[in-house]
């Protein structure tokens, strides 16, 4: 099929829940992806942070293929080698004690919220079931993770939403302190509000949230769905904030392109969930976990993470040389570009696609999440296209 055929069948058979750009993609390598007609696109999106090793990494594809030829799925009533190996790598590197495998970021956040609520109720009574989240946050599209999301635009249509959430402004330390009462079991935050505009949360606020959780025996949850797996220049973003959460959620980049979500729990929370209290049919899928093992072996290397930091600085410098870009926010290769007045992110993203560059938007900003393995030449090509589009 050509691009038009694919797009027509998309409109005919797939639910209209995505506002797709007029591009059909069939193959790629590294940070370059192609249409059926051979048109090339420099990818500054990596599938919204998923393809951390780019397209068609040979080692990753071989690991996934080899596992698919042996064992593609079994029930979680039995053990498999890939999921225990992935779990061991995660725990040994991070110091967390246990992991739970699911399939997505929303599912990982659901699991994290269940841990926080069960811990609160067991330690402090049935009324201790409220989680504090941040305004402008985003935690997923299930009913409960939408409820935990602090943006009114997401709180529509699907009533009634799950109860038990409070919201404070990121950076409002006094507001956070005032929100904590006997009903609060945990605090859940993103360290960079990705969907909220690629906005880093103030470090002092993050440390105060951690302190409050330790003092009050609450569960400190950090949503690392988008910021984790090397995206910000450290394996996990919280390493740059000087805190140690009780629970983190992971997804996106960990599978290298296959669905995988993770809840990681420390000694305090490792024993909260018991038999039958949580589960996922496809969680810990051997093929996805084989891909994850390959990703982790790559991304956990200090030299790999150092290179992400170097590329980040290079990309920021290049972006700020474009006169129509007012500022750049974010860490590592999770960047937000603020455009000058009169330019809109959505229109700019659409024109970039026409010119051969894939970018994302986050509110009024362009959001850039290139593969962590992107080359400097590919960065230059992408920035050149963006500059040309912004110049009009």
Q: What key phrases describe this protein's structure?
A:
392 residues, alpha/beta, seven-stranded mixed sheet, four-stranded mixed sheet, 17 strands, 37% helix, globular
Structure in words:
37% of the residues lie in helices and 18% in strands. The protein has 392 residues and is of the alpha/beta class. The chain has a 7-stranded mixed sheet, sandwiched between helices. A 4-stranded mixed sheet has the order 1-2-3-15. Helix 3 runs antiparallel to helix 9, helix 4 packs parallel to helix 9 and helix 10 packs parallel to helix 12. The model has no long low-confidence stretch (mean pLDDT 98).
Please provide a brief summary of the model:
Helix content is 37%, strand content 18%. With 392 residues, it is an alpha/beta fold. Helix 4 (81-94) runs parallel beside helix 9 (286-299) and helix 11 (345-355) packs across helix 12 (376-391).
């Amino acid at each position: 099929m050509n691009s038009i055929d694919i797009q027509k069948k998309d409109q005919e058979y797939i639910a209209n829940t995505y506002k797709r750009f007029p591009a059909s993609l069939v193959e790629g390598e590294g940070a370059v992806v192609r249409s059926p007609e051979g048109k090339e696109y420099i990818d500054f999106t990596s599938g919204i942070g998923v393809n951390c090793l780019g397209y068609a990494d040979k080692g990753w594809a071989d690991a996934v293929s080899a596992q698919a030829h042996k064992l593609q799925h079994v029930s979680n009533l039995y053990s498999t080698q890939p999921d225990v190996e992935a779990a061991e790598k995660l725990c040994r590197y991070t110091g967390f004690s246990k992991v739970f495998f699911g399939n997505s970021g929303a599912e990982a956040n659901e699991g994290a919220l269940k841990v926080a609520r069960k811990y609160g109720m067991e330690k402090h009574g049935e009324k201790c079931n409220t989680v504090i989240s941040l305004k402008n946050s985003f935690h997923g599209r299930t009913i409960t993770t939408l409820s935990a999301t602090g943006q009114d635009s997401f709180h529509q249509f699907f009533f009634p939403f799950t109860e038990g959430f409070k919201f404070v402004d990121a950076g409002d330390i006094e507001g956070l302190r005032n929100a904590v009462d006997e009903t609060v079991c945990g605090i859940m935050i993103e360290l960079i509000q990705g969907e909220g505009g690629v906005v880093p949360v103030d470090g002092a606020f993050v440390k105060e949230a951690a302190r409050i959780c330790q003092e009050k025996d609450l569960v400190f949850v950090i949503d690392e769905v988008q910021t984790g797996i090397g995206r910000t220049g450290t394996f996990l973003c919280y390493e740059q904030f000087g805190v140690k959460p009780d629970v983190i959620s992971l997804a996106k980049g960990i599978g290298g392109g296959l669905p995988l979500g993770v809840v990681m729990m420390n000694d305090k929370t490792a024993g909260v969930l018991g038999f039958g209290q949580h589960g996922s049919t496809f969680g810990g899928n051997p093929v996805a976990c084989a891909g994850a093992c390959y990703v982790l072996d790559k991304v956990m290397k200090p030299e790999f993470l150092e290179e992400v930091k170097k590329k980040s600085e290079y990309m920021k410098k290049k972006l700020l040389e474009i006169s129509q870009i007012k500022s750049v926010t974010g860490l590592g290769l999770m960047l937000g570009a603020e455009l000058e007045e009169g330019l809109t992110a959505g229109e700019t993203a659409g024109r970039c696609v026409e010119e051969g560059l894939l970018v994302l938007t986050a509110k009024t900003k362009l959001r850039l999440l290139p593969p962590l393995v992107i080359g400097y030449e590919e960065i230059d090509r992408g920035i050149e296209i963006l500059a040309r589009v912004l110049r009009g």
